[in-house]
Automatic annotation (TrEMBL):
It comes from the Bacteria. Residues 403-446, 492-536 form the LysM domain. Keywords: Membrane, Transmembrane, Transmembrane helix. One of its GO terms (molecular function) is lytic endotransglycosylase activity. The keyword Flavoprotein does not apply. This is Membrane-bound lytic murein transglycosylase D. SUPFAM superfamilies: LysM domain (SSF54106), Lysozyme-like (SSF53955). It holds the Pfam family SLT. Coiled coil: none annotated. CDD domains: LysM, MltD-like. The chain crosses the membrane at residues 12-34. It comes from Desulfoprunum benzoelyticum. The keyword S-adenosyl-L-methionine does not apply.
């Protein structure tokens, strides 16, 4: 046998050792580019979308609602200007801001067209030229002249959404885990709706998960009595089913999440053509795959990071879930009977059951058979049961008798109706009144529901994190809470909502701004942030008048800013 040369053997060993470490380095570097920068293997931060994620993080955490970012829609690292808009409380602000932004876009478009033909001559032109590099700079500027876009800042709205999310996140994460999905998907509603249960988009998408009616009917109950899209927890199950199905067909979470905006079938076509998320992001431009779809995954990553950062801040207090119990109705029941039987306020029923439509909540329709009604969890472990055929489980009657009210001096039909949670028209109908005139001592029947409530199966009280919400939707968030009368004046507490200012609140209550500043120990600047509690005085206008003005303002804001549900929409 021929002996091997030790020198040659050592050299070969060193060669293989060097190759091994080179290959090891290459293997380690590949996932670092795609995954490590996001710290999440489910949701990689690809280098191609880094600028987009940075842009959306700024929109969510840096730029306020009164700013508009003028930028290139294809390269989000190019920002031409950040414009300060006129305060929404100023009359005509909406129209003036629209004109201002359009003028800015035309200004930069004209500069870019000029720079695509000639050298820069002014400081502003040199600043814009510096944003473009490479031998094809002029061609890129010519294309950029046609792709200028504006984006309103979302800082206050995003913060309000993070505060609201505290009421839902623990349960939603539990739902996602039960389907074997990453629990960070629970942060998707930040992109879709800012966790606003009453969010409604221009294409008819509803609830915090923004299901359209057509898609929602595949997973949820949507009819004249119930719209489960409005229930964050029920809709979370639907979102989990949709996302799980999309992931099984598309193979990655960037693709599955983008399908939430563009559709699973559309993403399958894009994947068949381009082969990967990164190529789809960079090259795909067919059908409705435009700015919103291309940016959807980047927005999710940005929202995920911003929300978690805000959750860690000591000054941010998240809403907390309420402990609840669930009663499944085996027959339909009137909401007023339910309210009286369980001793639950109308407000609690509404906020714990956002899927019930207004006609059910006002008594025009009954709560349907099979509906899982949420109620506040009682302090006692004893769970009441609604009796069948007028009998309780131990044989005693559980009927709902008519309430009779005897009219006192100074009372009106409207005041009595409000006291019992019914309408003036309903009260007049029940008592056969032709007008609203009533007399002292007259006895009024409050309800004409003579029957009994039907059998209900009661679920065991759930854990605190399995509750629904603390303050769901604008019905509760726009309400005035803790009203009291002091020295003949009525006071109440509100929570400031995105877009509101001290000047607006002063206008709606006919109160001098300085008085509100003193009442709430505010400085001379008078700036207030969304989520802050404020005390208001109602000595010039009624609480109802204020509430109507406030609702009108926010309804108009939704109409004027249709992109607020999904900023990239």
């Amino acid at each position: 046998m021929k002996k091997s040369n030790p020198t040659v053997g050592t050299s070969v060993a060193h060669l293989f050792q060097g190759l091994f470490f080179i290959m090891l380095g290459m293997i380690v570097c590949i996932p670092l580019n795609a995954h490590a920068s996001s710290g999440n293997t489910h949701f990689p931060l690809y280098p191609a979308i880094q600028d987009n994620v940075t842009f959306w993080k700024s929109i969510y955490s840096r730029y306020s609602l009164n700013t508009a970012v003028i930028h290139d829609q294809n390269d989000l690292s190019i920002i031409y200007e950040v414009v300060t808009k006129i305060d929404d409380s100023v009359p005509g602000a909406g129209k003036a801001n629209k004109l201002l932004i359009e003028r800015k876009k035309r200004h930069y478009s004209a500069i870019l067209r000029k720079l695509s033909r000639t050298a820069p001559a002014t400081a502003e032109e040199r600043r814009i030229t510096a944003m473009f590099s490479g031998s094809n700079r002029q061609q890129r500027m010519a294309a950029a002249a046609e792709s200028i876009r504006s984006q309103t800042g979302q800082r206050e709205r995003f913060l309000a959404g993070v505060i609201r999310s505290g009421a839902y996140l623990p349960t939603i994460k539990q739902v996602l885990r039960s389907y074997g999905l990453p629990e960070d998907l629970a942060y998707l509603p930040h992109v879709e709706s800012s966790f606003n249960t009453e969010a409604y988009s221009k294409v008819g998408a509803s609830g915090i998960w923004q299901f359209t009616k057509s898609t929602g009917k595949s997973y949820l109950r949507i009819d004249q009595a119930v719209d489960e899209r409005s229930d964050p927890i029920i809709a979370a199950h639907a979102a989990a089913k949709y996302l799980k199905n999309s992931y099984s067909q598309l193979g990655t979470w960037p693709l599955a999440l983008t399908s939430y905006n563009y559709g699973t079938a559309g993403m399958k076509r894009a994947l068949n053509e381009k082969g990967s998320y990164e190529r789809i992001f960079a090259e795909y431009d067919k059908g409705y795959f435009k700015f919103a779809s291309r940016n959807f995954y980047s927005e999710f990553l940005a929202a995920l990071q911003c929300a978690k950062e805000l959750e860690r801040k000591p000054g941010v207090r998240l809403d907390q879930p309420l402990p609840t119990r669930t009663v499944t109705l085996k027959a339909s029941a009137d909401i007023r009977q339910i309210r009286k039987h369980f001793g639950v306020s109308q407000r609690n029923l509404e906020r714990l059951n956002p899927a019930l439509r207004s006609e059910v909540l006002t008594g025009k329709r009954q709560v349907p058979k099979g509906y899982a009604l949420r109620l506040p969890a009682p302090a006692s472990a004893v769970t009441p049961i609604i009796a069948a055929k007028g009998k309780s489980s131990n044989g005693s009657a559980l009927t709902t008798r008519d309430t009779v009210h005897q009219v006192r001096r100074g009372e009106t039909l409207t005041a009595i109706a409000g006291k019992y949670g019914t309408s003036t028209q309903e009260l007049a109908r029940i008592n056969g009144l032709d007008s609203s005139v009533i007399r002292i001592g007259q006895k009024l029947r409050i309800t004409d529901q003579p029957g009994t409530l039907q059998t209900a199966t009661v679920a065991a009280p759930v854990k605190i994190h399995a509750a629904t919400t603390k303050l769901t939707g604008s019905r509760s968030r726009l309400a005035v809470h803790k009203t009291t009368i002091h020295e003949g004046k009525r006071y109440g507490k509100i929570q400031v909502q995105p877009g509101e200012s001290l000047n607006l609140l002063a206008k709606w209550t006919a109160t001098p701004t300085t008085k509100l500043q003193r009442l709430n120990n505010l400085g001379q600047g008078g700036r207030i942030n969304a989520g802050r509690d404020l005390v208001l005085v109602f000595d010039k206008v009624s609480v109802n008048h204020f509430h109507q003005k406030r609702q009108q303002f926010h309804l108009k804001s939704k109409a004027d800013d249709l992109t607020s549900v999904n900023p990239a929409g």
